[in-house]
């Protein structure tokens, strides 16, 4: 808890004017004042250090304040902090575009920069709708999305998230209605999806999915085989396939992109979060040349009319290029596999505790699922008391630490999960 008499002056002066995210501010405890961060640690104003178990909403993959990223941003700041991307271009952006196209699943050759992950999804949805409009099929106006899915907080992204079970259910009455089905679990489920598409594909622009892991919907996993089957069905029914890898991209699930684990290539790919190593906000939407070609015309109305003010911001591009440097210099696949084994093995004893439904791990993601109705929010301050930053939500306590976390820090996180869950009443 925060002692109001000992909190920093900037905190007590500014907090009464702040509107905080994902928070019922009438009853929620106040946020913890942070003064700096380094490596896998968050330093509080009172001197305590918390080991970060969720990498600042899954973004700080290289840890905080990495010297290589910091130096790249400092160099760019001295030269050109920002310039518009309309009618102008600069080296950090074009270098990043080429590198992303080379890194992504083969064929995703066109990169549209955005200023956040949610906007990357918005752009993907607009591309899918206009792709069919430009090809003379304006009736394809709906999307196929999945129960427990989450794609962002902007209106379009909310509309393709689960309308009933997501944090956005209060908006269900005012959002466009799309097709929402369960993610298949096996060949029988894929056959059900096939039959659904036989009836509805003519009105669908695209299928959108979080590959392998549904994040904010409850850290729910599905298999590479199911993902590959979903891709095959999208192709068979001639609808675009959008992979939202904002959370799963850049080795979080074990490979560079979760799609690669399933051996598939989407038509459109969304990335963000770890793109800049969690240094600053940035997203990108990648598309195939076939998709891009549908926008080439003598008619200006056929162009993609989208352009955020801070699109391809040079500072963000510098951070992203430095982040990609680190991925190239410090291959993450082996370390992520080690993290997965440690998470799976050392969280497994939680399964024997009362009220635990499941324990699972994939890549650098570890999940303990509790019975529905458990007040997981009351566990948050207990984790702080254990010296860790872990934010349970819905029915899960989960870990998604920086990929550079060492074994000792990871064991402290795991121990905190086991201790707090064992002490529940």
- Count helical runs: 14
* Helix-strand string: HEEEHHHEHEHEHEEEHEHEEHHHEEHEEH
Question: According to CATH, what is the topology of the largest domain?
Answer: Aspartate Aminotransferase, domain 2
Task: Tell how many strands the DSSP assignment holds.
Answer: 16
Query: Poorly predicted ranges (pLDDT <50, ≥5 residues)?
Result: none
Q: How much helix is in the residues? A: 25-40%
Global structural class: alpha/beta
CATH superfamily of the largest domain: Type I PLP-dependent aspartate aminotransferase-like (Major domain)
* Cα distance spanning the termini: 21 Å
How would you state the average pLDDT, rounded?
96
Major sheet: 7 strands, mixed
What is the spatial order of strands in the main beta sheet? 4-12-11-10-7-5-6
Which band does the percent of strand residues land in? Answer: 15-25%
The structural domain count equals 2
**Class of the largest domain, according to the CATH hierarchy?**
Alpha Beta
Shape: globular
- Return the CATH architecture of the largest domain: 3-Layer(aba) Sandwich
Provide the gyration radius in Å: 22 Å
How does this model look, in words?
- The chain has 425 residues and is α/β, with parallel strands linked by helices.
- It folds into 2 domains: 9-61 and 333-402 and 412-422, Aspartate Aminotransferase, domain 1, CATH 3.90.1150; 67-329, Aspartate Aminotransferase, domain 2 (3-Layer(aba) Sandwich), CATH 3.40.640.10.
- The chain has 14 helices and 16 strands.
- The strands form 4 sheets. A 7-stranded mixed β-sheet has the order 4-12-11-10-7-5-6, with helices on both faces.
- Helix 3 packs antiparallel against helix 11 (314-329), helix 4 packs parallel to helix 11 and helix 12 (333-347) packs parallel to helix 14.
- The two termini are 21 Å apart.
- The mean pLDDT is 96.
């Amino acid at each position: 808890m925060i002692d109001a008499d000992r909190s920093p002056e900037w905190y007590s002066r500014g907090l009464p004017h702040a509107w905080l995210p994902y928070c019922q501010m009438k009853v929620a405890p106040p946020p913890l004042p942070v003064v700096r961060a380094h490596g896998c640690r968050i330093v509080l104003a009172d001197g305590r250090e918390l080991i970060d178990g969720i990498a600042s909403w899954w973004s700080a993959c290289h840890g905080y304040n990495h010297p290589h990223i910091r130096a790249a941003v400092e160099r760019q700041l001295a030269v050109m902090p920002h310039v518009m991307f309309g009618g102008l271009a600069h080296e950090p952006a074009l270098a990043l575009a080429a590198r992303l196209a080379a890194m992504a699943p083969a064929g995703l050759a066109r990169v549209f920069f955005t200023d956040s992950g949610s906007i990357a999804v918005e752009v993907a949805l607009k591309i899918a709708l206009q792709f069919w409009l430009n090809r003379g099929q304006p009736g394809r106006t709906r999307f196929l999305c999945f129960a427990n899915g989450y794609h962002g907080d902007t209106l379009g992204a909310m509309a393709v998230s689960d309308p009933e079970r997501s944090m956005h259910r209060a908006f269900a009455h005012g959002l466009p209605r799309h097709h929402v089905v369960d993610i298949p679990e096996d060949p029988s489920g894929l056959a059900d999806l096939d039959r659904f598409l036989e009836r509805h594909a003519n009105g669908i622009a695209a299928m959108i999915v979080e590959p392998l892991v549904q994040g904010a919907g409850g850290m729910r996993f599905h298999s590479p085989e199911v993902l590959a089957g979903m891709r095959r069905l999208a192709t068979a029914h001639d609808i675009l396939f959008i992979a939202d890898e904002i959370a799963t991209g850049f080795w979080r699930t074990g490979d560079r992109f979760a799609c690669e684990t399933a051996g598939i290539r989407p038509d459109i790919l969304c990335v963000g979060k770890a793109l800049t190593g969690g240094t600053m906000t940035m997203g990108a939407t990648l598309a195939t040349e076939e998709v891009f070609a549908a926008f080439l015309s003598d008619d200006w109305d056929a162009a993609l009319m989208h352009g955020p003010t801070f699109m391809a911001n040079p500072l963000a591009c510098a951070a992203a290029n430095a982040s990609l440097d680190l991925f190239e210099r410090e291959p993450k696949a082996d370390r992520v596999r080690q993290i997965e084994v440690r998470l799976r093995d050392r969280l497994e004893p939680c399964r024997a505790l009362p009220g635990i439904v499941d324990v699972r791990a994939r890549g650098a993601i570890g999940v303990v699922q509790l019975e529905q109705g458990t007040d997981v929010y009351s566990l948050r301050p207990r984790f702080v008391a254990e010296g860790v930053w872990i934010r349970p939500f819905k029915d899960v306590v989960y870990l998604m630490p920086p990929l550079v976390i060492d074994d000792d820090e990871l064991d402290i996180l795991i121990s905190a999960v086991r201790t707090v869950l064992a002490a529940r009443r």
